[in-house]
Amino acid sequence: MTNIQRSLTAATVAFIAMLHATRASFDLGWTTKDTESYAIFPAAIPELSELSVCFWMRTTDWDSELVVLSYATPDNDNEIVIYLPGEDKIRFYVAGQYKEAVANVRDGRFHQICMIWRKQLGNWAIYIDASRASAGIGLSSGVTIKDDGVLVIGQEQDELAGDFDYNQAYIGELSDLNVFNRSLTDNEVNVMSRTCYYDGGNVLRWYDVRGGLRGNPKFYSPTACQGFDGEMINRNAAPVRTKSFLASDHYNRNGGAI
Ligand SMILES: *[C@@H]1O[C@H](CO)[C@@H](O)[C@H](O)[C@H]1NC(C)=O
């Protein structure tokens, strides 16, 4: 190669790396409980007879109520809710009914959680770190999840797109939250639990969550998960973020909502 070719190649590699970095993963963080910081998506969800929601979370808050996601419709403010009522409980609401798993995910480490539902028998499953923590049938069986609602990440809606409850605001970090209109297989959940940046939700993709941010969730990029797509990772191997590191320019590059 000539020098020009070499520098062109280097430039191309840098450019591709930059594109990759632009698409690369980020984490969102809520450091105080308030009702001002969230991500909101009107009309995000079509009618659904199957649903999967997968995400990563990390929190050290042991006992407060935490709402990761709420989807309200004009008829039902609990059409879909991912709700941690306190300590080791995790609830999955579909069309106003819920099922629960018990597991300590509030230990300051990242955990991957998937919630899966199918209409016909109301089959449901809650996976934690790729293992099935709880599952069964009879969760809103025969009921279709309605469209025309509003999906909010980080707050609980007590009415459509509002009346957020301060006590239920999320605190901690979220990453790679994807919503699918089908039930994922064990294998897909497993692959996701070992993938840095899945971003494959066909109803809501994590990358697009950036577009719905309101208030001041912290925007962390690069993510605690340092790898790129498809790479084996261990998010918890990343250095623990201290408060001062969280506040530093180095880490909090965008300083909040974008
Ligand atoms: C999921 O959505 C896609 C379009 O994004 C559609 O083609 C497909 O039929 C849907 N699948 C189900 C199970 O609803």
What does this protein structure show overall?
- With 258 residues, this protein is an alpha+beta fold.
- The protein has a single domain, classed as Jelly Rolls (Sandwich).
- Strand 6 and strand 7 form a beta hairpin.
- The C terminus is likely disordered.
- The N and C termini lie far apart (42 Å).
- Helices cover 15% and strands 32% of the residues.
- 2-acetamido-2-deoxy-beta-D-glucopyranose binds next to loops.
- Keywords: Calcium, Disulfide bond, Glycoprotein, Metal-binding, Signal.
- This is Neuronal pentraxin-1-like.
- InterPro entries: ConA-like_dom_sf (IPR013320), Neuronal_Pentraxin_Related (IPR051360), PTX_dom (IPR001759).
Descriptive key words:
4 helices, 15% helix, PTX_dom, alpha+beta, binds 2-acetamido-2-deoxy-beta-D-glucopyranose, disulfide bond, glycoprotein, calcium, 258 residues
